[in-house]
User: Which sequence fits this backbone?
């Protein structure tokens, strides 16, 4: 297993009392798997990712993240907003993690060159972030994360702020890189379409406190294309199942707020 949680719980203190963000979470993420997580806003998806990344500590329960080598980072995280360095070129941003790891220059340059080509950024290697569109900045984020070669890639709605055209292009580029690297990936999204296009399995979370409502195997043949899938009978069945589960939890969350 790449990630294993056992009875994982996370609580926060607020002016109105103790808030339980995650409650008794038991999850297994297989090595090389692409798992997507959907759930209502505020159900603890990002909190779970931050615990996996070691940025936050669970209140109780256990989490195990597999490490195969001490020479590679345990996790890399891609956020919804771009987090690239504005004073570095695209090329230097993508290679930054490798440089910090002490990877030899020639090897670093080869890796960066390959990932720039796979994300359509070769022509922009010497450009700075202020010269790039939002979609291109997210390509840099994705390329930099894969370049660092972490044990696990954690992605928190990385395409959520993009228009549909750019989102579909980045989904395709992400899948091309993932299929070659087979990198263990945990991907948060609010889009059922996106989850079914990208994932091996889909974890549906409940409204707060976040629990696992259901884990669904996405038994759609790869490679996948959303345009083709929308007419696929099995895709429609899966979409309906996920949407029904998700809408139940969204209604529960809204009722609690009223």
Assistant:
């Amino acid at each position: 297993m790449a990630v294993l949680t056992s009875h994982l719980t996370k609580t926060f203190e607020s002016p109105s009392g103790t808030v339980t963000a995650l409650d008794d979470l038991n999850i297994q993420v297989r090595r090389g798997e692409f798992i997507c997580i959907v759930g209502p806003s505020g159900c603890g998806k990002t909190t779970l990712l931050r615990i996996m990344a070691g940025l936050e500590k669970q209140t109780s329960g256990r989490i195990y993240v597999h490490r195969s080598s001490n020479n590679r980072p345990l996790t890399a995280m891609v956020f919804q907003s771009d987090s690239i360095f504005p004073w570095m070129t695209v090329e230097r941003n993508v290679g930054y993690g490798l440089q910090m790891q002490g990877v030899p220059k020639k090897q670093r340059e080869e890796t960066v060159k390959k990932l720039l080509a796979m994300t359509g950024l070769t022509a922009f290697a010497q450009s700075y972030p202020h010269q790039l569109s939002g979609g291109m900045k997210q390509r840099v984020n994705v390329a930099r994360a894969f370049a660092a070669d972490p044990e696990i890639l954690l992605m928190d709605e990385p395409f959520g702020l993009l228009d549909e055209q750019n989102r579909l292009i980045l989904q395709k580029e992400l899948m091309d890189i993932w299929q070659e690297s087979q990198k263990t990936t945990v991907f948060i999204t609010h889009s059922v379409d996106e989850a079914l296009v990208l994932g091996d399995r889909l974890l549906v979370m409940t409204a707060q406190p976040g629990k696992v409502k259901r884990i669904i195997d996405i038994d759609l043949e790869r490679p996948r294309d959303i345009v083709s899938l929308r007419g696929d009978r099995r895709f429609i069945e899966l979409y309906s199942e996920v949407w029904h589960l998700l809408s139940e939890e969204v209604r529960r969350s809204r009722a609690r707020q009223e």
Q: What stands out?
A: The chain has a mean pLDDT of 93.
